[in-house]
Amino acid sequence: MAETTFDNATQILQPFKGVKKVTLEEYFTSGHRTCQGCESALVMKLMVKAAGPRTIVLGATGCMYVANTTYYTTPWVVPWMHTQLGSSGSAALGTAAGLKALMKKGKMKAEPINVIAFCGDGGGADMGLGAISATLTHKEYNSLILLYDNESYANTDIQLSGSTPYGANTTFSPPGKVHRIIHTRWKKNTAGMLAAGHPECRYVATVCASYAVEMMNKVRRALTIGGPTFIHSLDPCPKGWDYDPMLSHELGELAVETGVFPLYEVEDGVVRHYGKTKAIVEGRPRKPVREYLLKQGRFAHFTEEDLGYFQAKVDEMWDKWEIPGVIPFWKERPKAK
Ligand SMILES: Cc1ncc(C[n+]2csc(CCOP(=O)(O)OP(=O)(O)O)c2C)c(N)n1
Ligand code: SF4
Ligand SMILES: [Mg+2]
Q1: With a 6 A CB cut-off, is 122 part of the ligand 1 pocket?
Q2: pLDDT, tens digit, for every residue of 220-247?
Q3: 268 exposed, middle or buried (CB, 10 Å; 0-12, 13-18, 19+)?
Q4: How far, in Å, from the CA of 67 to the mean position of ligand 2?
Q5: For 151-164, what is each residue's pLDDT tens digit?
Q6: Are 4 and 104 in contact (CB under 8 A)?
Q7: Residue 12, CA distances (Å) to 100, 219, 226, 263, 277 in order
Q8: Alpha-carbon dihedral angle through residues 322, 226, 49, 25, given to the nearest 10 degrees
Q9: Which atom of ligand 1 is nearest to the CA of 240?
Q10: How far apart are the C-alpha atoms of 197 and 298, rounded to whole Å?
Q11: Could you tell me if the CB of 154 is within 6 A of ligand 1?
């Protein structure tokens, strides 16, 4: 059979210019069993809406697998496949390579088909980090890995992950009488690490579904650029974060407005803060982190001292980091003589 030429060129997905321009079709519909107010379910819906119907979604184990594919029910309208907890990277690369081979051999029409693999913070930022890293080195294959970060191993009852914030109450870190703060580690900087360490990856972004149009446009940008790309989404989780489900949207906004979760994209090595984060970089004051933390039961045991420590760490990120929220180093200042 004749070989069809097929390179990395993908479709051009223009950004949605405002909410009224967003397409009406849904590819993640009813039929899921996530908790009321689950932001990660919204992320799935927006992600595939942004990508469109010519999309294959691959999902690592976690809430977005288990609650979305109960026997005989599923909200996915596009082709969907489960993959093992740490395998989102391998699934993305294998599927993209398989499609490319079939198209190259002329066994499939050569056309852009989006390959999106999602993973949770446990599956992506912890267990599957190696596979994601490998995928981000393979510039010849088009795929997007979307990490939905609800800041715990939620599906197995809220164990702490490398993405769980300092001090949070999880089933692995319940505050006690002797030790109030059991989880004393600061959250991993996953997007910054992946952006800084993968020269073949042309696009990395952080997103939050509270800013839905911007979030969808980052997905569209990643799928337009092609090659391996990565998006990190911060997703409020009413069960794990212990708050009233009606606060999901507000908590996403507060994560950004307090500077806890900066929004940025790195395209071909150029960092661009966007949205409310851009305003903060340009001088808008950050809200105090207590406004974000004290709305969540997982921080209900925090004292003023704990709030002060958390605020100081976030201040450090903004005041000292080489690129605030992205590159966690700063240059040694010359010692005064
Ligand atoms: C190799 C492996 N270890 C453990 C599990 C059990 N397990 C299923 S889902 C899950 C939690 C995954 O957490 P995360 O990736 O953050 O997704 P979330 O549940 O928070 O959506 C765990 C530990 C598994 N399925 N496979
Ligand atoms: S535990 Fe959290 S992430 Fe899982 S379905 Fe419920 S709200 Fe969504
Ligand atoms: Mg999780």
Answers
A1: yes
A2: 999 999 999 999 999 999 999 999 999 9
A3: exposed
A4: 8
A5: 999 999 999 999 99
A6: yes
A7: 18, 12, 10, 23, 26
A8: 150
A9: 20
A10: 32
A11: yes
The strand pairing partners of 143, in sequence order, are 228
Q: Which residue has the tokens 């911060």?
A: 234
From 34, 118, 244, mutation site for ligand 2 pocket: most ligand atoms within 8 A of C-beta: 34
In the 8-state DSSP scheme, what is residue 246? G
Distance 152 CA to ligand 3 centre (A): 4
Element (H, E) at 120: strand 114-120
Q: Is pTM, for the whole model, over 0.90?
A: yes
Q: How far is the CA of 150 from the centre of ligand 2 (A)?
A: 8
Nearest CA to 237 out of 22, 27, 75, 67 is that of 67
Ligand 1 nearest-atom number relative to CA 65: 21
CA distance 147 to 150: 9
Q: Confirm or reject: Cβ of 237 under 6 Å from ligand 2.
A: yes
Residue 5: pLDDT band (50, 70, 90) is: very low
CA nearest neighbour of 3 among 112, 107, 128, 97: 107
